[in-house]
Amino acid sequence: MTSYQELIFRLKQYWSDRGCVIQEPYDLEVGAGTMAPETFLRVLGPEPYRVAYVQPSRRPADGRYGDNPNRLYKHQQLQVILKPSPDDVIEQYLGSLEAIGIDLRKHDLKFEEDNWESPTLGAWGVGWQVMLDGLEITQFTYFQQCGGIDLDLIPAELTYGLERLAAFLQVCDSVYDIEWTPGVRYAAVRYLDELQYSVYNFELADIPTLWQLFEIHEREAQRLIDRYPRGPETPTPDKRRYPLLPAYDHVLKCSHLFNTLDSRGAISVTERVGVIGRVRKLALGLAQAWMNQQEAAAL
Amino acid sequence: MSLPFLLEIGTEEIPDWMIPGALEHLRSLFLELLEREGLAGQNVCVDATPRRLVLRAAGLPERQADAEELVLGPPQAAAPAAVEGFARKQGVAATALTVQQTPKGAYWGYLKKTPGRPARAILAEALPGLILRISFPKTMVWTGKNGPRFIRPIRWLVALLGDEVVPFELGGVRSGNRTQGHRRLGRPDLEVTCANYEAVLRANAVWLPAAERRAKIRAEAEALGAVIDPGLLETLVYLTECPAAIRGDFDPAYLTLPREVLVTVMKHHQKYFAVEHNGGLAPHFVAVMNAAADPEGLVKRGNERVLRARFNDARFFWETDQKKSLAARLPDLEHVTFQAKLGSYLEKTRRLMALARELGGDDVAVRAAELCKCDLTTELVKEFTELQGVIGGLYARAQGEPEEVAQAIYEHYRPLSMEDAIPATRAGQVVALADKVDTLRGCFAIGLAPTGSRDPFALRRAAQGVVRILVEGKLALSVRELAGGNAELADFLLDRIRYYFREVRGFRYDEVNAALAAGWDNLPDLEARLAALQAVRPTENFEPLAASFKRIQNILKQAQFTEAAPVDARRLEAGPEAELFADYERVRAAARGLGYREALETIASLRPRVDVFFDKVLVNAPDPDVRRNRLILLRSILTEFSTIADFSEIVTHS
Minimal Cα–Cα distance from B205 to chain A, Å? Predict the structure, then answer.
């Protein structure tokens, strides 16, 4: 039986063999691997890049106190970015499934249309959900736009749902029964996370405090974006050392705080659009500045 | 020599629902190309799987026919230098010119012969542009920002004319004679010819003809007890290259969940056919694989696991939702926005209750209106939004609301499509009508009327629903009043009325125009008038009478005559005029109190008198009083007999 961590090792090895940088998870809360700078910022601009990393993805509203066998507050994605996407990207992807022990001749595989869009990130792409025996195991997207900017090179993004894949490989009905490594179940590693974060996100998070935090991070992100010296008169070294990466951290903080406030029921439907717009403004502003910085660096 | 042609656009998986439209477009673009280039071609046919759009044709000529064109130069009498100049311009010696006699005199001319170009060269030039012109609802780039746009990346191209490749390049892919089999069951690099193409694909697990995949899925699924849903069948046809059906099972304990929930999970979320036994759901499902077989049962096991998880979720939501009744959820609607400018669903609910009463609804309808949006706050509807209304109805029943109330809530979103039925109960019709009318009025009032193909609030569907409920529910409510005094909305409804009677009910367009011209405020009445018109139309007197009515209208228009007065019987000329008047009086009296059909038949019996009148009587009499009286007579006939339909709208053959 392929253990959960063995599955991760094999996927990382597979993509490492295909020229990917193997990164570690980004060390801030994000809702998806797409939000990590290794995707959001790297897909911008004309530089080719290949990277794969596991990204724990937090979605406060999906928490179920550890009771639901399929829904998690925090699940893990294996995120692969191939920029530009190679012509045989689907064959390479299918190869990764074989590499984790799925004999594709014995299973059913379908590519069903599923276009991805993130209004908060000003990003969208077209692609599929990949269905293996009726189970969605991967989101496959050709990015078209990110941070409101048309992409020069079109990256393929592969997002594997690791818990689902492991449950599939190990034939278990509950993610908590997944064998993480022989003798250790998923529940033993993660159950308390799920329980306590559900309690926090749904019951105990202090709404005024979260709003304050949101505003503090928003202000700091905006301040840094506004001060970025985008004019041609600024010497390249000055542009290059300007802290846009830290600014992006504050954008991510805002995004996560928004999700937490949302799960706490603190954002009405009408307010929602407005708050999403605030995060989006930061993401777009940051992407613009980042492009300018990259262009300066390329000169 | 005539040649077969094969074009295969090899792509990554195209969204199933876009394929039939794309194929039709490809076909018509290709036919246009043949036409434009003077290339004949027969049996142009198209087919597709998710990974390939294919066009095949027979009988293409190897080259275009040669063309001849006579270019005229200077007059015969022109100076030799001018003649030389003309010849030079044509690129020939002056000896190649001939003298042409024309109506304007004799001219030097050159018979220019253009040899026809090879079909292969024409196709090579035209195909890249043609392929990129196939329209899709949403396209992408894959080679980079300024690269070609298509629905999904193009990965290979087969283009053969006879035995030869039609050479071109598109998005970095060169056309050739190599295709690909099924992703997992076929080989990836296959040489083909026009003749063996389909057979090579079949040997590599690709069933090219959609018709064969459809028949295979249908036969296998039916054999496993599936209830065939035609929409789902089409989806599966274009999601697979090599379809095969398998049956899976689920725990019969889930059958205690409402059928609607189970079917939605199976059909919409998992693309399974439901299985029935003795009229009820059986604890099985039929899945269609893109694979030949499932010998080890792995696919079956996987699908069963997924369905179990889905059903578990549904059961959990169902049980959670029961903890709070629909009525108790009403205040929560304050936090659910209907539309930013139109307020919350609580406000909408209040409007619906008032409107249901206004439309003649009883207490059942008003109660249903009060509760019909409450299911928007339930977990089950958040999970399965397509079941809104249905879930509310099921909960209302489970919570002891009167059956009629539950039923009205259940069906108040209907009709969801042209094929869907309208609500069966009167209360359901009233709530459905109130809901749609409120949405239409609100959106039109704040400037959200649909423009072009953009209709984010599905207002066309709502308006179509209003029309169908009024007609099919035989509700004689005033369309103008429903439009709430908004002229733009009234016009919008009129459009849908016209569409409904023409396209859905199949009335001829001129009949619809004729009946509409006599009024469209009361739709059941309009329907009755149309039916009468359609029935009477084939009778011998009808169309000629309609032609005469048009003539009358033209005469009145020309004379700019709008005067309404009684006919002065003393001024009538004996013979055809007096006889027409007498017959007019007779028909008018006879038609009174008749049904529309009988009335129309009676009116049609006027025809011989009208014909004789126009034959023998001069309307424009020299005596102005006689003339005026004749015009009054004609106008009386026209207005009196146009209340069922305006005959002058009928298009006649005479």
Answer: 12
